[in-house]
Amino acid sequence: MQVQSKGNDVTSKILGFVTGGLLAALSLPVWASEGINSRFNMPRGVSTYSASIYDLHMLVFYICVGIGVVVFGAMAYTIYKHRKSRGAEPASFHENTKLEIVWTAIPMAILIIMAIPATAVMIELYDTGGSEMEIEVRGYQWRWQYKYLDEDRNQTLEFFSSMATPREQIENRVVKDPNYLLEVDNPLVIPVNRKIKLLLTANDVIHAWWVPEFGLKRDAIPGILNDVWVEVTEPGIYRGMCAELCGRDHAYMPIVVHALPQDEFDAWYEEQQTAFEERQAMAERTFEEDELMSLGRDVYNRFCASCHMANGQGIPPTFPALDGSPVVRGDRDAHIRLVYEGVPGTAMQAFGGQLNAAELAAVTHFQRHSWSNNVGDITQPVDVLDLMSGQ
Ligand SMILES: [Cu+2]
Fold this sequence. Notes:
Layout: H1 2-33, H2 48-81, H3 97-126, E1 133-140, E2 143-148, E3 157-161, H4 167-170, E4 188-191, E5 196-202, E6 207-211, E7 216-220, E8 226-230, E9 236-242, E10 254-260, H5 262-282, H6 289-303, H7 305-308, H8 326-329, H9 332-341, H10 357-368, H11 381-389
Parallel strand pairs: 1-5, 4-10
Antiparallel strand pairs: 1-2, 2-3, 5-8, 6-7, 6-9, 9-10
């Protein structure tokens, strides 16, 4: 009776073992061909070192698979071969020094073997030497600023990159875009197949620049320059976001990078420089009132509305209302100065470094003549220039 039940047990076990093994063997090639590039695996990325990181990951993965096969294979074999029903007696090798040395030495050797390629990749990641281009990346609450520090060009190029996802999508009034919260007005543009050094820093609090497909994430800390590098190998549009909790709109400071072939990049750079010069020239012009209002509204919505709200009501007591504000309705020069210099120690930043004279004049004029404010004066770029140069 007992013997028979044991026999059945063994047969079903063997059957289970064989089917299991067969299934595993059959699925292995599928795994190898598709699984490796599937969403279950780490993506390979598009930069030279994201590929190194990926290769390292796969190497360590295969070593682990090898260890798994050997360990579990040996276990399965001994469990089956030396089972109790065959009368196997447990061997006793308690406190066997030789054996203990061996099973400490083997894992140690494996760890050392894995540490060699891991260290090589780490060294590669941190080596910013031999870069062909430098870009400063500066975090602000809540946007990024990119500054091309290229000595060969006749002028440095710099601009802000702010989220461009419309508020209607955030407030669920319209359907969300596939790139919801991952769109910006001015993306960072870089050439492919060039080693680019990025100098990361921040103006207010700690931010972090993170683009998963580059295999790159590093903190942007006020007062510190962190240098990293990237060499993108495939043209395309890559997205990321600030990866450090940096305040109220932390979720709203995405990163978009356009990687272009060198000639397209050069054409883009030329175009940007012309546009930059045109904007500079604007500061010397005299504006009509409606021009000031429309430029001012644009600047306000991009730079001020996140705190003071589009309707000028702010979020008191944290962010004061500008509608009816004594500052906005009061002395114009003091108003300009406040926007230019900010209010130290508060979230009200100094916008002097972020906006040019025309934009500052327009946003000042806009606040003084919007909502229920109607001061009845006019602010020209030249007023801003005079005020700020004479301080
Ligand atoms: Cu941030």
